[in-house]
Amino acid sequence: MEISDMIKPENLVYGKPALLTDNVMHYCPGCSHGTVHKLIAEVIEDMGIQDKTIGISPVGCSVFAYNYIDIDWQEAAHGRAPALATATKRLCPDKYVFTYQGDGDLASIGTAEIIHACSRGENIVVIFINNGIYGMTGGQMAPTTLLGMKTSTTPYGRDAKLNGFPLKITEMLAALDGTAYISRQSVHTAAAARKAKNAIRKGFEYSSKGVGLSFIEIVSTCNSGWKLSPVEANKWMVEHMFAKYPVGDIKDVLK
Amino acid sequence: MAFKGTIVIDKQRCKGCSVCIENCPNKCISLSKGVNSKGYRYAELSSDGCIGCASCAIVCPDSVISVYRVKI
Amino acid sequence: MAEKILMKGNEAIAISAIRNGVDGYFGYPITPQSEVMETLMKEKPWETTGMVVLQAESELSSINMVYGGASCGKKVMTSSSSPGISLMCEGISYIAGAELPCVIVDVMRGGPGLGTIQPSQSDYSQAVKGGGHGDYHCIVIAPASAQDMYDFVDWGFELAFKYRNPVIILADGIIGQLMEKVELHPMKPRRTEEEVLRDAPWATLGKPAGRERNVITSLSLDANTQENFNRKLKAKYDDIRENEVKFSEYLTEDAEYLFVAFGCSSRICEAAVDILREEGIKAGLIRPITLFPFPEKEISRLAGQVKSIMSIELNLGQMVEDVRLAANGQCPVGFYGRQGGNIYTPEEIVEEFRKFNNLK
Question: How far is CA A154 from CA A129, A142, C7, C332, in A?
Fold first, then answer.
């Protein structure tokens, strides 16, 4: 069969989800944000909940998430997305509400908001992108930066005496009674991305069951900040980030 | 059952990150010699080993790959 | 005959919120306004009107809950006192920048810093001039009674939705704590989702196929886009200045001397005017009810009529700057204030008035 004969709508098995807009993403080549955006769009599309979903975007590289996924969005101040999501879900309990936050946003300036949203058991989904660095502001140390990792504010590598230790906030949140489903995933391979999508879907499903907050961390790359090629960044993530941030489900109250 | 597949890449939107190349089980994607209008070398199908598994498209951060597959 | 109930100013805020169809209250305890949330929790409006009441972990969080709720087109509010409002200023700036309606009650106490829990009016500048970053204004309305506290909730939401702008009810510890009879108006039901979307088609309530997605944001990286937005805000603020100024006057018609005072101070000044009138001195009072927009035209007119103006405030002299701008040199403008929770008596004001005007 000729290639041209295969390229017909009935043979299409995978393509850009309809809920992703045609806007060209501003992210660097190979950035995990784009892949995670796509997975979220696919989940919303698969579940048929576009008209019931409200996203809260953060401050950081994904501040413009609202340009890419075709749903209603609120753009929060740095770290405050869980507070917006709390009110949105409580005022509109039949909607699906999720926040999309990076490690600087969620694990540093927004620790109070995320901890208390988890503690209250808000029925929202939190997608947490952990790439161990502040991407948009130019590669500064994040709470999740690994020891020894070089950033623009730890030019000689993160030193525990000077900068403290990497924050495993996901494990912290799993200890809170209000969280229902906590999972850590990645999107660097097709298999990993499929698992991440399943976790995101489970989070959305749980949020309508009234069982508490679902939190999906995606261990990600920031190849510009890490000063590696996208492919090398993925390898570095597997070798270094996974040791500190192992992937897999951490908590599931319905299991 | 065997499959034969192919991919269509929106080369103007491709940023040449090469994550798809790494993820192709049959190693049939490579970077172009030339560049697109943004100056990126873009991914292209370089051999006929494609089975339409969509691994490339799933990991593509810019969602520029469409995957077609037929049973043979 | 409408029902009249004896209640505190703070309680009036809470009862009014329930009776006026407010969708959500998000707050954090702080003296002297904690009765607002306490009353709401006691009344359990979620069982009657469906109103959401939530105690947040901080004022930062409560104002951002307001931001989220307002983004859904809902009638949402918070209340706090001075140090808490300082924490909220980030969120208020975002709300102003995203052009969202909401009501924020500030029951002022003395500062700076942790200051005192006694009444004060020392956050006039914070409320009227900004507080947060960027070129923006809140609409600021100043109650002087428990009835005002009750009435201003509904009026506040009316203004907030009319202009898509945050509204601050700038009260103080006296107005929050005093007990007065309050006339309750008929209940207003909460709006349905259809009614919310009619009032707020921009609300983020989920995007049906066939309409553009609604995005609530205050971000514009492009300089021209931001400048155009700032100019649009300016046009809105000018519109508010033109149409929403509200004040009350007491014996100003033949006045030769004028007091300017807002909130609790206006009530004390009224007594001072009475004392002076009994002595044959033609004093009068203007009480700005809206602090932004400020009744500058009326004060300017009166400045051309009187021999002098005194601004009487429980602070070191904040509103007096706006009074001077309005008077624009037409007559001398003086100031008298007390701080730290101390409150002037009418006699004290009369004495200061005599000093300022060189009267025996």
Answer: 21, 10, 58, 59
